[in-house]
User: What shape does this take?
Amino acid sequence: MSAVYSQLTGLLSSTYDWFFSALWVIESERNDAKVNVYRKTIWPDISGKVLELGPGYAQSLQFLKHATLKDGSEAVDPTAIKSYTVIEPNTFLYGGLQKNAELNGFHVSYDTLSYPEGASITTMASGDENVPFKIVKGSLDDPDNIPQAVLDEAPYDSILTSFSLCTVRDLETSLANIFKLLRPGGTYYFIEHVRQPEPGDPLVIEDNGVNARFWGKFQDFLNPLWKVIGHGCHINRRTGETVANMGCWETVDYKNVRPTIDLQSRIMPLSFGKATKPLN
Assistant: This one.
């Protein structure tokens, strides 16, 4: 009986992952159209050994520093980015993820310990100047179960999240693990959708006349249903505030945005910025 239950839950989980990946093909393009203007303000600063959590299809790779290589190709600048590791639990996203990484000149490989199927996947761009890009299956939800491939590359100079902390099971645990995996002086970069900031919040750089109290309460009301539709996505987390209130960062610099482009934007305002780990 337990074997049947395990098979059934595995099938349901896999179907859920597939459904989200199919939805994200469309939704990620709409999302990028709204938020790329904010990514452009911080993504070019990302450098060194990089870890990204929940990259999805990783369209934001285009905003990293690029350069012309010796063979004449345009690629991520190897003098700025030394290595790039991504940790993504949804394997149905891997095809698009690999494609976007290769379009940006990365040399892609898979961690076969967490994802054995990766051993049979053909990858491209293996020149000396191509920055290594490793895809790891997993998450940072459990401090005792971080994939070894992620630990092997630590500490990181830069860690980033882009609309991924909304879906982690435990926000505080994931942020604590991000802090631990950074080198002293390293930087965490983020852009996340959040609960509506309070009216009069001085960190709001675009207000657009949104009724913050109404939409914040609407987010709270909608969140239980949204988590089901959005693959565990919480639309009422105060991620920017949570980062700032951790008390462990040297500096935290973030802003909030209340876009009014459409209904979805009103229930998904943004926090974006960066936090720097102390040198000692």
The chain has one domain: 17-276. Residues 128 and 267 are 45 Å apart (CA to CA). Residues 4-12 have pLDDT under 50 and may be disordered. The domain at 17-276 is CATH 3.40.50.150 (Rossmann fold).
